[in-house]
Amino acid sequence: MDYQLPDKIEKLRIKTKDFVNNIIIPLESDKSSYDDHENINLSLLEDIREKVKQAGLWAPQIPTSRSGLGLGPVGMSVLYEEMNRSIFGPVCFNCAAPDDGNMYILNKIATEEQKIKWLDPIIRGEVRSALAMTEPAPGGGSDPSMIKTEAVFSNNKWIVNGLKWYITGAGIASHFILLAKTKGGLTAFLYHKDQPGWNIKRRIPIMGPEEHGGHCEIEYNGLEIPDENRLGEVGQGLKIVQIRLGLARLTHCMRWIGLSKRSLEIALDYVSHREGFGIKLADRESIQIKLGKAAMDIDISRLLVMRAAWKIENGSKSRQDVSMAKIQVADTLNEVCDTAIQLNGAKGYSKDIILEWIYRYARQAKLVDGATEVHQMIVNRFFNNYKSDFWHWGIGPDV
Ligand SMILES: Cc1cc2nc3c(=O)[nH]c(=O)nc-3n(C[C@H](O)[C@H](O)[C@H](O)COP(=O)(O)OP(=O)(O)OC[C@H]3O[C@@H](n4cnc5c(N)ncnc54)[C@H](O)[C@@H]3O)c2cc1C
Questions:
Q1: Does the pLDDT at position 244 exceed 80?
Q2: Sign of dihedral through CA atoms 203, 205, 206, 208?
Q3: Which of 18, 31, 36, 98 has a 20 to 30 A CA-CA distance from 184?
Q4: Range of the domain at 31
């Protein structure tokens, strides 16, 4: 058992941390850094992405054969946590959802021709992407087997009709991965924004800051997809999306730990300087207990994430580990940010600092990529199947 980071990963971690501290975090306090939806504005993003490339930190999760740094899930856990100490971080390194998960699945499933056409431009940062899966009731949400959007095969192409919603990034994406019902089950497809037969009905207003391109409701009215743009086998769509969501869920967790850490750093800074009733807030035991608990919750989250990452890197699907990490990290992010706001007093509730941004963003963590209850159901399923072997060490029977 070895908790030491390999030298290569530790060096990259320090480089990433310095970049985030020196180049990205200072942008957060400048109002002109933001777009209309509270994210980093696109022209500034272009500048920062160029600096990331020059620093040799671009797309660390992508294989070296496709111009990335070749890190697996363990190295990603370390770097993503550092990146998302800034609210702007992950997108600057091309490590933000949904591109990150989409690149992962395309690299894993697509044919080489498909990779050149659909994946490489996302890796280079030339286009953005989206995953269209969730539908309004009575269509598929938590239960994707209820998906109603249909693709019918005719004359070597697929004709798609249906509705999707909450599709992150759809307003800016050029490359879409779409999940639709076909004969024989669900099938995944690729399409380009310029193809006719689909439209964005509306950008759905949400509680928190938005990803670039928002969260959109999409209508398909006879979108034609050539069979060569089918991703994987007919009827294998659910399996493909589960592969994508496995690591994508975990990368959400990696990033959310970064936001949790930053929230607590801001709280520690405030209580270390603020005095009341004759002493520093940081010297009060009640404050120390709050900070200690939050720091411990973050570390519990990190251990769960790193174990799942290590298992995936060593060939396991690690489904119950990913589910446990997702539940734990989503709760920790919400609780730690709430504590940080409380400890900052009125300032924590203001827009002068980023805690209120993180607080509004954090609520989605318990919903996206599987609601907490669905992950609890999955954990329970594994517990029921494996009884006391559920708590095995190493790579177990869950693969
Ligand atoms: C900010 C944001 C971004 C998103 N981005 C995307 C995207 O890019 N692409 C995409 O396809 N989708 C996206 N989604 C959709 C998201 O994945 C779904 O909201 C999520 O899967 C839940 O589906 P639903 O909303 O239909 O909830 P429902 O399935 O209607 O469930 C509602 C609630 O019921 C409870 N519940 C459901 N099942 C169970 C169960 N088995 N046991 C106990 N309780 C249960 C949960 O509390 C759940 O929250 C996004 C959503 C948000 C909020």
A1: no
A2: positive
A3: 98
A4: 7-123
* Per-residue pLDDT reduced to its tens digit, 287-334: 999 999 999 999 999 999 999 999 999 988 889 999 999 999 999 999
pLDDT digits (tens, 9 = 90+) for 77-93: 999 999 999 999 999 99
CB atoms within 10 A of CB 205: 9
- Give the domain CATH number at 184: 2.40.110.10
- Kindly give the number of the ligand 1 atom that is closest to the alpha carbon of 140: 26
**Is residue 162 within 8 Å of residue 180, measured between CB atoms?**
yes
Question: In a mutational test of the pocket of ligand 1, which residue from 331, 360, 367, 373 has the highest number of ligand atoms less than 8 Å from its CB?
Answer: 367
For the chain, the domain total comes to: 3
Residue 143: CB atoms within 10 A of its CB come to 9
- pLDDT, average across residues 169-187: 97
Q: In this structure, are 273 and 386 located in the same domain?
A: yes
- Name the residue with the closest Cα to ligand 1, atom 31: 142
Distance 186 CA to ligand 1 centre (A): 18
Report residue 242 as tokens.
């589960």
Structure-block tokens of residue 92: 């600057």
Asked if the structure places residue 351 within a domain, the reply is yes
| pLDDT confidence of residue 399 | 46
Are residue 185 and residue 292 in the same domain, yes or no? no
Kindly give the distance from the C-alpha atom of residue 244 to the centroid of ligand 1, in angstroms, as a whole number.
16
Q: What is the mean pLDDT of residues 374-396?
A: 92
189, 209, 231 - which closes a domain: 231
Q: How far is the CA of 278 from the centre of ligand 1 (A)?
A: 48
Which of 128, 146, 163, 166 has most ligand 1 atoms within 8 Å of CB, for mutation? 166
User: Taking a C-beta distance cutoff of 8 angstroms, is the pair 239, 216 a contact?
Assistant: no
